[in-house]
Amino acid sequence: MPVRHSTPKWFSRVQLHLGNIRCSPFIKGIAMTSHAERFATSQWTAGIIGLGYVGLPLAVAASRKGLGVIGFDLSAPLTAALMEGRSHVGDVSDSELGRALDDGAVFTADAARLAEADAIFICVPSPLGRNRQPDLSFIESAAETVATVVRPGQLISLESTTYPGSTEDILVPAVEKAGLTVDVDVFVAFSPERVSPGDQLKTADIPKVVGGVSALSGEVAAAAYGRLVPSVHLVSSARAAEMAKLLENTYRAVNIGLINEMAQLAHELDIDIWEVVDAAATKPFGFQAFYPGPGVGGHCIPLDPQYLAWRAREANFTTRFIDTAEQVNSHMPGYVASRVVDILNDRGLPVFGTEILAVGIAYKPDVADDRESASLHVIDELKARGAKVSVFDPLVGADRIRRHDLVPVDEGDDLSRFTMAVVLTDHRVIDYDKIAAQVGVVFDTRGMYRRIGSTAANVHHL
Ligand SMILES: NC(=O)c1ccc[n+]([C@@H]2O[C@H](COP(=O)([O-])OP(=O)(O)OC[C@H]3O[C@@H](n4cnc5c(N)ncnc54)[C@H](O)[C@@H]3O)[C@@H](O)[C@H]2O)c1
């Protein structure tokens, strides 16, 4: 029997609504307490744990909003580089970092400095373990750090993607271990990060979902985030906010799985999938275009649905959509490799010993990040079939390509020695016409040649 929650009586007692904060209907009408008001109106300092793709942009955004910033990372070389104004995150330029430093931002490997912060935002990794189960060790270690520095009046907000219940299960015990009580001394919340590296929209442009481990914690967190982002959507619990993030990325994974399956079907039926998607996308409602590709990559889409699936299994629940999307998407690199074999075969060529140029190993266009990239799986599949694969990715760069034990190709290199090129990531900076002109045959898994209006006869499409 499903449990229904009724609105507690105290929700109707209060009227005041916070400026840019929208509440889910369940919690509308909330009043701003003095704790929330402090974060909404006074000067305060943001402490950030983990200064990677999420933490550093957040630190710079907080500084730009006039807040104090203390960024903490376990990596001392990283914090030293940041103090020298050298950013390692593509979306944060050295000049933006320099402005934050000029305004007093501090980056340190000394966790004790976090005690000076009024709010601590945790932005550490949340990968999968060896058996594809959630690896919460980074969040747990950050929680241990919090336990050593937390003081009355602080807000602790977890931003790392994780399964519903993590904030309550890990952060609340951490503050209690320090002898403090949630809602009396400190406030604990979850607010997922939605930044998309390489995208035009930056941290400070993207609305935030916020949920506290209690109503008061949620309200305080919403007031704090209201200083950082254009709008805050406050939900009734940390668990709802945790699940909202997983829904967002599961929605992407499932829809990418759907279109990847459609791409294979369209090929069987001799129909152009890109033309089909473009046609369907003219419908002004009820359809959102997703595009096929060599699989899913990055540190979110392949991982996050597995957090939800794992939590579901704990509750004896089977997530059929997640499982199916995972099957289809993880099959794509093998499918792409088999299409390469077919294209060569049609020309009377073997894959074994053939020189193939893989174009792009970043997991998505216009970023230098190759973590969990589907391109790497395609390359493995081609090598397993005996192909000699070299890689061109001007953003990821030769050093990193070599670290994968792969041969890099430079911008000015003559490409005519390659029998075939396979476009795996559609970086805009690449000269695709040059590739089609110099390489005998091209297989485009990203629809890039269509987008640039190329009619080159030697280009095959996924
Ligand atoms: N990168 C994205 O596009 C993105 C988008 C949305 C959400 N997320 C989520 O945000 C979280 C962070 O991801 P990221 O991409 O920024 O990771 P990252 O690997 O780029 O950076 C994490 C940083 O945390 C540091 N760190 C690890 N453990 C620490 C600890 N205990 N104390 C202090 N520092 C520690 C690491 O040294 C590293 O610098 C993850 O949960 C991820 O799923 C990422």
Structural notes for this entry:
- This protein is an alpha/beta fold and 462 residues long.
- It has helices at 34-41, 55-64, 76-83, 94-102, 137-149, 166-177, 215-225, 238-268, 273-280, 304-314, 320-346, 374-384, 398-403, 432-438, 448-451, and strands at 21-23, 45-49, 68-72, 106-108, 119-122, 155-158, 187-190, 208-212, 232-235, 355-359, 388-392, 407-408, 420-423, 441-444, 459-461.
- It has two domains: 9-236, 3-Layer(aba) Sandwich (Rossmann fold), CATH 3.40.50; 258-461, 3-Layer(aba) Sandwich (Rossmann fold).
- The chain is built from 15 helices and 15 strands.
- The strands form two sheets. Strands 1-9-8-7-6-5-2-3-4 form a nine-stranded mixed sheet, with helices on both faces.
- Strand 14 (441-444), helix 15 (448-451) and strand 15 (459-461) form a beta-alpha-beta unit.
- Residues 1-17 have low confidence and may be disordered.
- It binds nicotinamide-adenine-dinucleotide.
- Nicotinamide-adenine-dinucleotide binds at residues 49-55, 72-75, 78, 123-126, 138, 141-142, 145, 160-161, 193, 195, 197, 299-300.
- Nicotinamide-adenine-dinucleotide is lined by residues 49-55, 72-75, 78, 123-126, 138, 141-142, 145, 160-161, 193, 195, 197, 299-300.
